[in-house]
Amino acid sequence: MEYRRLGASGLKVPALSFGAGTFGGQGPLFGAWGNTDTREARRLVDVCLDAGITMFDTADVYSGGASEEVLGDAIKGRRDQVIVSTKTSLPMGAGPGDAGSSRKRLITACEDALRRLGTDYIDLFQLHAFDAGTPIEETLSTLDDLVRAGKVRYLGVSNFSGWQAMKSLAIAERYGHPRYIAHQVYYSLIGRDYEWELMPLGLDQGLGALVWSPLGWGRLTGKVRRNQPLPAGSRLHHTADFGPPVDDEHLYRVVDALDEIAQETGKAIPQIALNWLLQRPTVSSVIIGARNEQQLRQNLGAIGWTLTADQMAKLDAASSKAAPYPYFPYQRQEGFARLNPPVGGLTPPAAA
């Protein structure tokens, strides 16, 4: 397993992490992802640790806290071997104090997560969404208190826009609060919006990307095909409306390119899609999920090899989309482009 620094921090994380969204699955979304019980979870953690996957990501909102509870049981007796990442801010109930990033909510959410996880500290505590109703200063000072109390070691965010992340970082610097080191983001071959603004921000400010749904909400498994019905067992029957929208023809173009590379490499389509992500700037870790050991072991095949430059270029071209404003002038007009060269040496995703 390759280990990378998480953003501008000293914390080293595995290139692949395990997402525990399937643990204790309940409800229309998480129940469709999977319902791994404690016994099965322990086995998946065993496989992960044997492969060098030491970071496990969850959230309080995953099955109403059941994911944290199952993960806590699965790592019992080996807490010092793992990095635990969890998230809060999304609603856990209908009450006025059951959502957001206020001082009251964050302290309560942290204590609840510690109890469910069966631990006395959280390695990476992330805000699951931006709370526009709470002053950023209040949120950051509370997170500072949790770090100083030893209950949290590192801080991150998820699903923030560029201005929300940058304003938070600026306020943290102004008041001497701990800075966010991670941004958990949606990024895949069929969802490259991350590259327009958040990737340059990550490079500039030292925010490491933790990639969620790297297989495009289950569309890059190789089972979703042109002119074929959605497989009967696909979770997309139940979860498609929760995820990012995807143009079908764009998806099929990407799958066609993945098919070509699968024939060249002998690798499975999901392994190729994950390997592509592992070569992108700012990506610290790609979070993989699995309903069972077979899926987990297949995803582990994404490491230990590297796509060639030509194969990367083929995937870049197949997955490119027109840039939205204000980015398209920098991709299409030479004068604009001279002022802003491609991020990290990448070919801009709209250039193909």
UniProtKB/TrEMBL annotation:
- What region holds the NADP-dependent oxidoreductase domain? 16-318
Q: Which GO terms describe its cellular component?
A: cytosol
Carries keyword Phosphoprotein?
no
Molecular-function GO terms, alphabetical: oxidoreductase activity
This protein's name: Aldo/keto reductase
- Spell out the PANTHER family in the cross-references: NADH-SPECIFIC METHYLGLYOXAL REDUCTASE-RELATED (PTHR43364), OXIDOREDUCTASE (PTHR43364:SF18)
Quote the Gene3D superfamilies the UniProt record gives.
Answer: NADP-dependent oxidoreductase domain
Record's Pfam families? Answer: Aldo_ket_red
Q: Which InterPro entries match?
A: AKR, AKR_Detox_Biosynth, Aldo/ket_reductase_CS, NAD(P)_OxRdtase_dom_sf, NADP_OxRdtase_dom
Q: What CDD domains does this protein map onto?
A: AKR_PsAKR
Which keywords does the record carry? Answer: Oxidoreductase
